[in-house]
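Section 5.1 Outputs to date
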Amino acid sequence: MPSSNSLFDTIRYFKDKRLLSIFCFGIASGFPWVMTGSAMSGWLKDEGLSRSSIGLFGLIFVTYSINFLWSPFVDRVKLPFLTSKFGQRRSWIMFTQIFMVIATYQLSQVNVSEQLSLVALLGLTIAFFGSSQDIAIDAYRIDILAGDHNNYMSAGSAMATAGWWTGFAGLGSIPFLLVDSPNWDWSDAFLVLSVIMAILMVTTFIVKEPTNNREVELDLIQTNYLKVLPKQGRKPLYILLLLPTIFGSIIYANIGYPAWPENFIPNSYSFTFITLFIVLLLVIFIQQLGHLNLTIRNINPLDTHQVPNVIHKITAWLLTTLVAPIQEFFDRNGVKLALSILLFIFLFKLGEAYLGRMSIVFYREVGFSNSDIAYYSKMLNWATTIVFSLIGSVFTIRYGILKGLFIGGIAMGASNLLFAVMALVGPNKALFAATVFVDGFTSAWGSVAFVALISVLCNKTFTASQYALMVSLGTFGRVMLGSYSGIVVDWLDGNWALFFVLTAVMVIPSLVFLYMIRKPLTVLINRNSSKS
């Protein structure tokens, strides 16, 4: 619903000091995408790799689309020597940043043309810990703003978006400027990137750890599981076995069905077979989980309970950690609305993914230099995104998250058409600047509303788990399908104009779907706002 605050009151939300820490963590969140995204693409392009190879190299970003698999452990596992001193959120952020610094430094020491496999491994390492860092940073942002009105969440989303683009576009211009300078190459640039990543760790030492009653809530859930598990036999173990089997099947499909038994099932049926297999497992999983939770809800406090053994305790911990976040999301929203929300999240930024993955290659093929890319694609985009993230959040606070999503989605699709014009006109710097400006504005506007929506939908007991689950779906569309963007361009015989028209059309299904679920989604957002 639209806010009754004046414009001045709306802007006052940004005076909150917590937003500065969110901005700084946003920088650290966006920066790993430079090392494994734009800078990596530029390096591989200069080494002579094809468009298709560069696009497929982006499959290392699969870690961002499946990080929900280990996100529950960020909510529950305490890191030795770190958690007691820095707290649950800061300890995990620090842990991931240390490994990214090491991996980036090692990347600066390899020869790309001779050690391409090692480059891929180190890139995968950075992506893995970068995606894990995102889990903890997003959870920190939601936790630190928990208990306040949704308007604070919108303001926090703006600062997170502005910070992310500062890390990705602002700091992302540095390697391109360096490699265009005499006596600098990509190895030197990645050495500088490792130093910058180390500097970004300072924020983790300075900020305060958010406080909440998560442990109390989780202990209560685990206690309820312990009350019923001794009477359930092996059924809870089946639930725990089903979940990794489902996740493993999804990962298996994403990496191209290795060692597929084509003698029994033709390769042409692999997708259909795996899909039906996953659906069957999901049906069984939901049935078993529903039965277990029904038993928990019918617990009689006067009943005597068997003493749980070690197996029961381990099972209860795993159920609380891995299963309870998913169950709570579907119980709170209902299966139909929950699935609808997840489908919209998957579709919303699909077109942007195809554009983003091939943008550096497109700029180079059109005729722009590394310096042009640094100044226009990175630095101008950075400034534009910061400004319009704030403007977009003011609009979202005043008129609501859903209107922000509609306007942002339409604008994102329309802005892609300017890239089609660039493909026809050629290396015109004025057009380049105008296109980057419009693209940065629309992307920032849509991202603020998108992040605000996901943040509001999280239960504060399972912040890391549920936020990572929803973001992973969106990232899955951007990473997995976006990785085939180079193949699409080749299939179009290098027709960049037509390619960008297709990316503009891709936003339409998500907006149609959002319109269909607007009413129940509005009720859900308002309900969560009233609890804040």
